[in-house]
Amino acid sequence: MSFVRFAQTDIVNDTAKITTSTWTGNTNALTAVFTSSTQAVLHSPSSSGAHYINVFNKNPQSDTTAEVQYSIAYGHKAGSGSEHFTHAVGSYGKSPSRNIYSQYRQLVYGTETQNFTFVDHTPDDIYVINVNRSRYKHNLKPGSLNLTLASGSSVTNGNTVVHLTDDSITTTGSSVITNVGRQFNLVSGSNGVRLGNTVQVVGSGSYGYFYPDAGLIILNAAALGHKFKTAAYAGLQRGVNSNTQEDNHVKLLYTIESGSSFIVDSEEKVSSTYYFARARNFEFNYTTNPSFIDDNGNVLINSMIDNPTSYITTVGMYNDNGELLAVAKLSQPVTKDFTKEALVRVKLDY
Amino acid sequence: MGYLDNTSITVDAILTKRGRELLSQGGLGAFNITQFAFGDDEIDYTLFNEDHPNGSQFSGEAIENMPLIEAIPDEGNTMIHKLITLNSGTSKLPIVTTNIPKITLNLGASINVTPSTLNFNDVSAQSEPSGYLYTIADRRLLAGFGGGRSDNYSPVKTARTAFSQTIMGGDSVSLTALNSTSLFGTNTKLLTTLTIEGRDTGARVTIPVSISKTQIGQTTVTTETGISLR
Asked: Which end of chain A has fewer CB atoms at under 10 Å, N or C?
């Protein structure tokens, strides 16, 4: 007998959550902001750069290992702040900013009629941070988001600074379920804990929403504009003129660059199955290994006739057809004889 | 007071190619592990030193200190030597033999190979009750590959990964060589192996298979060409 069937109780399933940093190289805080001069072409409404800007971890112009970490976009429900695709009667308002707003509205709400409403305020426009899909496993981890926005190059030089996080810890994980999964409020605070008692910026609603299952952050442009009142490029005063490329997404980019800290973790659920392979004292004490016997099957080592000893190095796991589906190796041989029992716990991850 | 012995060894398993294939075909429904076996592929038992100067407790010293290599994902190249359960005092272990030690076939020719297991349950030669696993290393070289069984048992076709194929079941296996020269190139023969493993004992034997470019029953047809005149 060489095969032993697993008993029902010998197979145990387990699920564990694995958390890693989202950014390339397991970097915890992304402090630098780089863009590509070929992608971030802004003054053409049909270009990708007019819709979104890819943010890299390194300079893509000089470093071939640079990878996209996330993208930034600006959306306006009437299409303001960017040029019309075709500036003619019948096509007014059809612009990149309207594309972005409509796209994310469809994703989140599944309807073209519902606008983004942050608590009690419905702004005309939003910012979007879209984390690159290849950066995270199953989802972003609620409670790990820490995004610093600042109006100037130094966060300690009298500039406006906002530390944003989701409120998943404060709400003990309670969330609104949308078409793109869980939705948490984006609030002032850190590590999922809200600072103060309210999610709102006075008169402007909350800072936005965090969608960890879709890798999305929707920012309330009105709340940020209220908080960052400096009118310069480093501020977040949006330009909302019609048929004008206002580069609003670039303004958010500079604010993130000035904040110099973007932290969010990736989360993965790993399902494991444990198989308990047991060798009782009277089992597996002989081997078909050719070095154990001669050509006629005689045991070569005299002392092993009365006291056979074998060595376990490998566990093979089979289906009913006798097909080898998984294999596990031990780090050192385990001695097996009639006086010893062995229990090997084999872990198989999916 | 000492520390308790942790008798459970934890190891991580990897999927074999066949395991991945089944997982991709039908998820965990098709991927159903039901049984296990232990192997000792890289152990050389001649390293067991009966005459160790420090006594018999140290006979296995060399083997026990052997560092082991990582798992091989090809199911055809791992778990070759299995540990088996036999009564204490057994001096002769089961071995598999065949009626044909080496297979040589011409194109399109067939042959039946019948294994038997020696030293199994104190019987000199018999077929194993659970049958045998037959694995051809390069299935491309055969037009037919199937098992037969005296009690009308239908063999189960199993692994078909890369070039190899394993079938489970019968008391014998039938091999029919391919009937085409397309794989030969400039070679006059192609080589592969047939491995037979007893499902009860784990004993196995590998025999060489040679397919010759020679055709059986070859017919030469001569035709006339030219202009037909009235």
From this structure: C
Q: Say yes or no for a CB contact (<8 Å) between B81 and A289.
A: yes
pLDDT tens digits for range B180-207: 888 888 889 999 999 998 888 888 899 9
User: Looking at CA atoms only, how far is residue B189 from chain A in angstroms?
Assistant: 29
Q: Are A20 and A26 in contact (CB under 8 A)?
A: yes
Task: List B residues 106-165 in contact with A (Cβ-Cβ < 8 A).
Answer: 118-119, 133, 156, 158-159
A255-264 as b/e: b if 16+ CB within 10 A: bbbbbbbbbb
Average confidence (pLDDT) over A29-46: 88
Q: Name A203's Cβ contacts closer than 8 Å, sequence gap at least 6.
A: A121, A226
CB contact set of A64 (below 8 Å; sequence gap of 6+): none
Tell me the C-alpha distance between B184 and B180, whole Å. Answer: 9
Cβ pair A240, A81 in contact under 8 A: yes
Contact between A151 and A255 under an 8 Å Cβ cutoff? The reply is yes
Q: Which of A296, A303, A311, A331 would you mutate first to test chain B, the one with the most B CBs within 10 A?
A: A311
Query: From CA B224, how far away is CA B221, in angstroms rounded?
Result: 10
- Contact flag A3-B199 (C-beta cutoff 8 Å): yes
Q: Rounded to whole angstroms, how far apart are CA atoms A212 and A131?
A: 10
pTM of the model: 0.68
ipTM over 0.90: no
Residues A262-312 pLDDT 10s:
999 999 988 889 999 999 999 999 998 999 998 888 888 888 888 899 999
